[in-house]
Fold this sequence. Notes:
mainly alpha, 24 helices, 66% helix
Amino acid sequence: MACFIDAVVLHREDIRRELAVCLRRPDGYVNRKQRDISRVPKLDIVAPSIPIRPVPGDGTEFLDPEFLEHAKSAPNTTPDCRRNLKMLRTLVSRQNMKQAIMYMDELRSAGKANVYIYNFMISAIGRFGDIDQALELKEEMERRKILPDTFTYSALISAFSRANKPTKSEAMFIEMISRKVKPNVVTFGALMSVYAKQGLVDLAEQAMDHMEKENIEKNAVVYNTLALAYAKAGCLEKLKGVLNAMHMHSVLPDSTTYNTLINSFCENDDYETAYAYLESMKQAAWIAGPDVVTFNIFLKQCAKKGNVKHANRVLELIQSENLKPSVVTYSSLINAYAKAGDFDGADRSLKLMRSKGLKPNVVTYSSLIDARAKRGEINKALRLRSDMEEDGQLPNTITWNSLINGLGNACRVDDAEKLFLEMKDKNVSRTIDT
């Protein structure tokens, strides 16, 4: 563990300082005057291993899947605790966080909030993005002499990762180790997501190596996260080895694995490799096979580069699989035609979309408006804006920017200024491009 911790600390020089300032309680583990990680109090805490198995379709899919079953399978819970957890799960599954927090307050007042109650709420609140309140719950646990365990730290590391606060994720991980709380596969998956977003392949690989040394069983989530790190860093050869590594460790790839591979190779214009992974996905009997989401990944990459040839090929594949194209499908197809300057093809796709009973959204219109404006067809772009509003779609910042830039390029400065003032009156957020 020491080697991996050293790597985490050294990769960002300010981690020691950040550890002191980002974890706010002055007592219990770190105060703001401390700067040396070795001075963090080391408590003899070894968290129990908590079996975690997701239950699909229970209405809480927006929570981290690895955390879902914690409430039901946590050891040493009383029937009363399980009833309370079930109530919290019900409230959270309905996204009624206000009621869930009120219920949590009642449990605290009655002295019934134990580590499992706190952990579930930390996970749920962190997932909803209120990381400050999630951290406050952890601090409250410690004041009540309830020791944070593996689940507590994993939930917080994951919450900080989703909030794009990598330093805090790492600081929480280092504090976890300093307190001798044993990380599990969920912890490493959350920490690796921090590195994946930054393309820090070395640290992601070291985390995988450490799990191997500690006999921590890997799952599809950590391999998918490793694949994301390779994709972010452009390590395509290493990315190709992810499936083989999963098979060697008897881990079945899931839809996310294949979608990550497909997206990465499409992004790098290697469509044939992406199609090969699509065929492999079809042969994987343990998953439902590619769905419209998978094909939309293809189409979005085609749209970015105006690759009409592959966009049409993907649409044919969708139809051959008897799948129903979505608004995203047609919007991406229209965008591909627009980027290629083929507005006849874009208009045909728009008509086809309407014939299927699908309504163009703001993305559909904005891509057409942007393409028309960039080609100097500003009057057609302005007419599309009128069509857009008649269709009940409000222009967003991208739409306004495209029109203002188009008017400016056409030397219609007065009209551009009028549009800018109209945008301001409508309280549409402006960017530096505006």
